[in-house]
Each structure stands twice: as structure tokens, then as C-alpha cells.
Design a protein that fits this description.
This protein has a two-stranded antiparallel ribbon. Helix content is about 75%, strand content about 0%. The protein starts with a helix and ends with a helix. It is globular and about 55 Å long. α5 (about 95-125) runs parallel beside α10 (about 270-280) and α6 (about 130-155) runs antiparallel to α7 (about 165-190). With about 375 residues, it is mostly helical.
Length: about 375
Amino acid sequence: MVATIRSRLTDWTVVVPLLAVLVLVLTWGRELPAILVLLVAVFLAGAVLAAVHHAEVVAHRVGEPFGSLVLAVAVTVIEVALIVTLMISGGDKTQALARDTVFAAVMITCNGILGLSLLLGALRRRVATFNPEGTGGALATVTTLATLSLVVPTFTTSRPGPEFSPAQLAFAAVASLGLYGLFVMVQTGRHRDYFLPVNSEGRVLDTAQHADPPSGRAAVASLVLLVIALIAVVGHAKSVSPAIESAVAAANLPQSVVGVVIALLVLLPETLAAARAARRDRVQISLNLALGSAMASIGLTIPAIALASVWLDGPLLLGLGGTQMVLLALTVVTGVLTVVPGRATLLQGGVHLSLLAAFLFLAASP
């Protein structure tokens, strides 16, 4: 028993998040030299890997689709805190940071994570199978949230720029939060079976058939360590953000690239978790993570930004530009064609990954 406790206390998944938070406390608010930026990056990567491990432990305990919600919501809540913190301290140059980060999160999840999951699933079993009812409902919700929050502001006339008036922003916030809450109720309640992994014949698989779930105490410990690891991830992302901004400026890249980099860092735990699920032939779990993360990123970020706008100076730019709207429309159309059959091959995975590549290229070279 003593040996087991000692083993758990010295496990890297326990030690790394704690050390990462310690490094965060010691470096917070300081201008970091290059060597410390490298050290922070190492702990950032370690915290990401630890977060994935603990998310999987919690997910195994609570079962699907609750497990997919744990990581998606936890990451998004802390992502919102990061965006608000940077906007409060960043001044005029961060007026579009929320838009850039949320749009980047949508493109990374709906093309990057989804495409990678389908690719890995198809490599394992030639054809990746999933439930089109649940996945289609999730995609429809993401599309509605993204259009309402990121496209509509470009065409409203109450304000001169791509922004909402206070009343419009309040409506978008309430609608986003309400729609996200409705989806969670459907996903975890009446139509829970639509979001469970299926076999090649479309029958729901037993997600707990390979191993006994962890004890309640182990799950609670992993939940606490998951939160600690995610705090470290976002905190270190903020710590290295000045270095990122300097590198972006030195490379003469658009300011929107900063939002893309932040989204890539924050979504790394979900990407790794989705990839591991797809390799275990649980493509539906991967898609739950991808679309659930996109949904949470909008459904939680917009209300938080709307509330924070009371204290923020200057306009809040949410409307997308022409190129971004084309990429979003292409992502939605491609996603519909991918989801409807409930089966996907390497081709669909490659198409979505090519859309991610196009987004990343055009973000750097608009």
C-alpha cells in the first residue's frame, strides 16, 4: 500500500502539473529571457500531456459522452480567462483577439482535430464509422453559433465596423449560452446514445469493455490535477505570449496570427486526446471532442466577452472578413458532406486537413 502511494506521488502525471504551476508562479508577470521562455515551453508541453492523461482517467470514470465534455469545457473556460486577461492588458491591438482566437479554434477543431481523427480511424479500419445523428446535430449547432457570433456582426448596421451594438451583443451572448446548454442537455440526456461510439454496422459499442473504470478517489484526484494542468497550460501560454507577439512582429506577420497560436496551444490537449481515441477505434469520441470544443469555444467565450466588454475600452470586433467567411462556409459544406453518410475514408480526413492548412497559410499571408 505504501509503495503504491509513493508510486502515485512520484508519477510524472502528478509531478509535472505541480512543477508547471510552481514555474508559473515564479515567472508570472516577468519579462522572460530566451532560456526561460524555452523552460516554460518545456513545462507547457509536459502540462499538455498530463492534462490528456487525467482527462482520459476522468472520462473513463464518468463514461461517454460526459467524458468528452470534461476536457472541452475545462479547456474552454480557461481559454476564455486567457482571452479576457490579454484583452484587458493588451489595449487597442487586442480588439479583435476574441474573434481571431474563436475563429481559429473553430477551424482547428472542425478541420484539424476532426480531419486527424478521421484519418487515424480510416488508417486503422479502412473506413471510420460514427453516428451521423449526433455528429450532424453537433455540426449544426457549431454552424449556428459561428454564424450568429462571427458572421452576422459584419452585416449589422447599428455600428460602423464589424461589431455588435450592446443590445445585439447581449442577445448573441444569451442565445449562444442557451444553445450550448440545450446541446449539452440533449447530448447527456434524451439522445445520449447518439454520441456513443459505434461499430461498422452502426451498433453502439460498450465504451467500458476493455478495463474497469478507476475508483472515485482516483477520478477526483485526476480531475483536480486536470484543472491544475490546464491552468499551467494557459498560464504558460500567456507567459510566452510576449515572445510570440515579438516573433510575429519580427516576421512581419498579421496580428491575427497571435490568436491562431494561442488557439493551437490551448487546443493541444484536446487534439492529443482525440487522436488517441481515434487510434483505439473510438472515432465518435474524437468527433465529440472536436465539435464539442468548437461549440464550447463560442458558446462560453461570447457570453464572457460580452460581460467583460463592460470594463473593456474601445470597440469589440467580432465580424469576420471576406476570406475568413469563405473558409468558414467551405468548412461547413465539407463537414455536412462528411457527416451525413456516417462513414469516412482517408479522403475526407485529407480534405479537412487541407482546409486547416489553407486557413493557417492565409492567416500568415492574407
